[in-house]
Amino acid sequence: MRSLRTVSVVGCHAEGEVGDVIVGGVLDAPGCSSMYEKMQYFWTKKDSLRKLLLNEPRGRSSMNTNLVLPPCDPRADAGFLIMESDEYAPMSGSNTICTATVLLETGMIPMQEPVTQFNLDTAAGLVGITAECEAGKCKSVAFDNVPSFVFALDKQIHVPGLGVVSVDIAWGGMMFALVDAGACNLTIENSQGPQLIELGERIKRAVQAQYTPVHPENPAIRGVSNFGWTHPLQDNGADGKAAVNTVVVSPGRFDRSPCGTGTCARMAVLHARGQLQVGETFRHKSIIGTEFVNHIRGTTKVGEYDAILPTVKGRGWITGFKEIVLDPTDPFPEGFRVGDQWHV
Length: 344
Ligand SMILES: O=C(O)[C@H]1NCC[C@@H]1O
Fold this sequence. Notes:
This protein is α+β, with helices and mostly antiparallel strands. It has five helices and 19 strands. It has an eight-stranded mixed β-barrel. Bound molecules: 3-hydroxyproline.
């Protein structure tokens, strides 16, 4: 067998969402002073790597791959970049949990039981990790995400073929448009999958055409890229507050996890509406019934915006160890997408 390149990958999922982790075979981005610059380097100069790994036949529509790199922030123990099907994400919750789990369980970051704490550098900023560890297993990963905030509540968006829809727009490490599923006569369940996907993508495109949020600290981060369907918040007393959601990840498939960045965007919206206070437990559930357990640590400001400091906790599991290769005669060096599985 011949190979143009070999990439070492540890397979992983967090609460159902695949977040494989590249641990070897890819060199660092040269001359960058931030993870955001490294992200831009890979996106503009090395994007064939993302396509090779995420498109078929090596990938599938519902997966992500993370690239571990040296950090730029001296406070961080490692850096990583997040590759998704249609973009590099500045930050991602499920991918942070996968990356932290792999770093600890492969020994790239020394595991200390019962708790290991370290920092990861991301394109959105520094993220603090607190991992519960026992007998060599990383049992849970809590991450202190970047400050999250609301751009607009109840933004009235005209959606072709549907009419006016009320949309909340918030940053949680990615830009989200959030819509109450009930307001569109939908329920978050697999039997309504096709409608949730089609309408979610349609509303997202309408938002993109009518409103462009810009991150005040990095104006290059602009525009909504993710759409989330929400169910109303439930108050379960001593067990905390809870809600079901599903995020439609581009180009049109469900996040299998409760979506960490979407969870932070939702907590920012709930806090802005007075429905979730600092310190209260918020259990966010996915379409497959998995859960992130979350809270707001405090509040701050980002530019002119009132922001929350969110913490998200979930679990990751290693699924395998793979050597990805590219034979020089393979006719699909950047893979391909097919209309049965991909919204092409
Ligand atoms: O947990 C999250 O934030 C994400 N999961 C896949 C898509 C989002 O990046």
